[in-house]
Amino acid sequence: MNLILFTFIVLLGFTSYYFGRKKAYTIQYTKKRLTALPQFYGYYLAIWCAIPAFIIFSLWAIFEPTIVKLLILSDYSNQGYLDNELNLIYEKIKSLSRGQFTGEITPFIEASAKKYINLRSIAQSSKVVIVLSAIIASGAYAYKRISSNSRTREPVEKFLKAVLFTASLAAILTTVGIIFSLIFQTIDFFKVIPLFDFVFGTHWYPAKAFVRDSSEALDPSMYSDTFGAVPIFAGTFFIAFIAMCVAIPIGLMSGIYLAEYASIKVRQYAKPLIEILAGIPTVVYGFFAALTVGPFLKEIGNSMGLDVSAESALAAGGVMGIMIIPFISSLSDDVITSVPQSLRDGSYAMGATKSETIKKVIFPAALPGIVGSILLGVSRAIGETMIVVMASGLAANLTLNPLESTSTITAQIVVILIGDQAFGDPKTQAAFALGMSLFLVTLCLNIVALRVVKKYREKYE
Amino acid sequence: MNKNKEQLLNKRYKAEKRFRLYGQSAIFMALLFLIIFIFKIFSTGYSAFQKTWLIVPVTFDAELMMLEQNPSKEDLKDADYYDIALKSMADLDPNANENQENELKRMVSYFFEREIKRELLNDPSLIGKTKDVYLTASDDLDQVFKGNYPRDLPEDQRRVTDYQLKIFDQLVELGKVESKFNLSFFTYPDSREAELAGIASSFMGSIFSILVCLMIAFPVAVLAAIYLEEFAPKNRFTDFIEVNINNLAAVPSIVFGLLGLGILLAVFQLPRSTPLVGGITLSLMTLPTIIIACRASLKAVPPSIREAALAMGASKMQTTMHHTVPLSMPGTLSGTIIGLAQALGETAPLILIGMVAFVNTIPGSPLDPAASLPVQIYIWAESAERGFVEKVSACIMVLLGFLIIMNLFAQIIRHKFEKKWS
Question: Which of 209-248 (A) contact B at CB < 8 A?
Answer without folding.
Answer: none
